[in-house]
């Protein structure tokens, strides 16, 4: 839809209908468009620019830990997918099948990768012979396909963009270390760059990845009190290695199986940014991830010298990601548009400001307006961007803390789930049956057993059996 | 295969068997591996790092011309692919078809994108209403699938990585301007960054892209005298716009069709780098695209102070992409490995060098060895890298010039094609029938009608009819 039509409509208030608010924001902030391909989306420039920044930041952090990028085929022959039993059971029901190449039927059908463990195993089997070939710490940036029934932009779509790291190690210890290391990279990235606080922990047996020995996760709380799994890291032990025959000769000349991990983050993170930071005026982007950090809006731009001064100011602020909106829309329209798109700072400059050697700086996160002398605007903008980043994280953290509850017994648990959207901390027996009963009765799922455990009692909040772990529960996307 | 096995084998000489030499280099320089998916490859770290640099350099140049990145679905519903007649005829025979999603057959089958004109048209149809929405200058980085029968790593594979730009403009002039602009971006990139000289020109009617009004191309000459189409830019006129109904309201309130272009470059460029610059010791990478520009090899590295000095030197050279090979392989082995991988400069430093405050710098392009004082090594390395880049371009240009021939009549043409691998310049009538006859008789194809035309006569080299254009002919990959 052309922009002029879209911007005059208001977005739904988040208090009134959070799901509709979300849809309005993704469309009106020009992040995506729907397509003729059901369940798939177009990621438009404003949305893709966020992904590019996520990629650049994550990729840098990966490479600092020794990760190398590769690219594997998008197709997986059916026989390869079937090699690891749990894995095929987990993924086969939701893959897209290619049956014809050109005009001819294929001898063996292939799925479009839903994830690439099997391909990496097939690759590593040839690549690894000796301990000298280890570790392998490879990653790829690509798209994957999962044939979901219900889809939502960024949160759950039939095709999505992600990175998938796949590593092979000589020992179980080293694999475990890498699994945790990457979860920590993810957590730091979310907190430092996206300003999203996360809970680090382990998934239950039921919720772990198909084929993994252990799945670690970071869980974030959205504004509506629902949880979003934001990144996962899996330790496979030697299960895949045994299924695929990936062995190496050790230093003392024995044949050993490798130990493997995988870890991934997706375009879902864009959904998290929207649902953690957004408000009724639209998107709010943390400065470190914002493709444009500062938008200069000339006021009365036809007056002599205004556009020149705006350009000069842009030059002065070139340490930041800065643009000038010199389109022929009126300033009020421009303000609304940049608020919708979540640009952290707006700088208004008109003839009177120029005369007084100042500009008006407006913060997106709290609406504050600050008069700044043009002499010190460079430093001031830097300080404000830092402050916004910090403020956004603190606000999100406060929101999570205020929406995290302790349930000491089953009645409290049910009451919280029904009346207080957020995380519920409770003791849990560790049994899949009990976990399924909790979901059945309340629709809450286990989110993670946090690495930082608290002792809230001795018995399971639901079944009363001896408690094994403190678990975060919640309704989730 | 583990590295220690591979490196002891020699690669085939390029004079003896160029095709085998190419295969040896891609495998032994660790660029790719074959996979269980027929016709698809793994791009390994050394290969993917080259692609990452190509992406970064091209993407920067695109954005300087106003390009914005987006991401569209990888699937195209059959009905959408069929909307433009020439386009579907060109691509339908070589696409992969998805027929099932999860356990159910799809209502309509979809192909995996072989290229995304139809999807962009479907998107632009909703996106464009008024002249204010124009131009749209979008690009995506993704993989595409074409079900080729014969495949070769990088040059022709069933899945490959590329970028595809798709633009929409108000006028035919603007579309033509963008088509040529992007071809020029490609040509400059090839010449400045990859050190590959290219011929810019137009494809014949027969060789143009399915659905295009005009296809422009850059053609490069490989070391064996075969041509490689290295990038193309297409002007679609309003053909797709009419098939898809993409109209806008002009300033004077009339409904008009948009004019469109598309342009793409692929991982095939890595094949071009190998075949233009490589030699019998392996890959030779131009400094501007080399993921590692300088490899420091400590000699007698167990002697006190050697590794420390190597690390210090790395720090000193941090303006370049520099690494230290401190593995426990012997220096001779390391030298061979880095030659195979095409690293532009090797710096050897051992106890005696340290004592004399110097290092030995070895050029990959010509084997020259230069003693350099450690005091001025930083500047010297910069000069050498520049010189290698320049030298490699000049060498490739000389090779092309020496292998470009003029055919004044049909006997000369046949003689050149049979005996002198390279480009043949000749006058041509412009008829598809004649072009097909030439291919039939000699296996040479039309490469391009260069923008810079020369008058070599009045009649077609083959049929004797009046000549319309000077054409470059050649055997091609």
Q: Report the mean per-residue pLDDT of chain A as an integer.
A: 95
The backbone outline of chain A, from C-alpha atoms, is: globular
Strand order of the largest sheet of chain A: 3-7-8-14-11-10-9-22-23-21-20
Which two protein chains have the largest interface (Cβ within 8 Å of the partner's Cβ), and how many residues from each?
A: A-B, 61 and 61 residues
Q: What Rg of chain A is obtained from the alpha carbons, in whole angstroms?
A: 25 Å
Structural class of chain A: alpha+beta
Question: CATH topology of the largest domain in chain A, what is it called?
Answer: BirA Bifunctional Protein, domain 2
Query: How many domain regions of chain A?
Result: 3
| CATH class categorisation of the largest domain in chain A | Alpha Beta
Task: Give a verbal description of the structure.
Two copies of one chain form a homodimer. With 477 residues, chain A is of the alpha+beta class. Chain A folds into three domains: 16-277, BirA Bifunctional Protein, domain 2 (2-Layer Sandwich), CATH 3.30.930; 294-387, Anticodon-binding domain (Rossmann fold, 3-Layer(aba) Sandwich), CATH 3.40.50; 404-474, Translation Initiation Factor IF3 (2-Layer Sandwich). Chain A has helices at 3-8, 18-28, 45-64, 78-81, 85-91, 117-127, 172-192, 239-244, 268-277, 306-316, 331-340, 351-355, 377-402, 410-419, 432-442, and strands at residues 32-34, 41-43, 68-69, 75-77, 96-101, 104-112, 136-145, 159-169, 199-202, 214-221, 227-237, 247-249, 255-257, 259-266, 294-298, 322-324, 345-349, 358-363, 369-373, 404-406, 423-428, 445-450, 469-474. In chain A, the strands form five sheets. Chain A has an eleven-stranded mixed beta sheet with strand order 3-7-8-14-11-10-9-22-23-21-20, sandwiched between helices. In chain A, helix 3 packs across helix 7. The longest helix of chain A has 26 residues, at 377-402. The radius of gyration of chain A is 25 Å and the shape is globular. In chain A, 50% of the residues are buried. Residues 1-6 of chain A have low confidence and may be disordered. Chains A and B meet through helix 1, strand 2, helix 3, strand 3 and strand 4 of A and helix 1, strand 2, helix 3, strand 3 and strand 4 of B. Strand 5 of chain A pairs antiparallel with strand 5 of chain B.
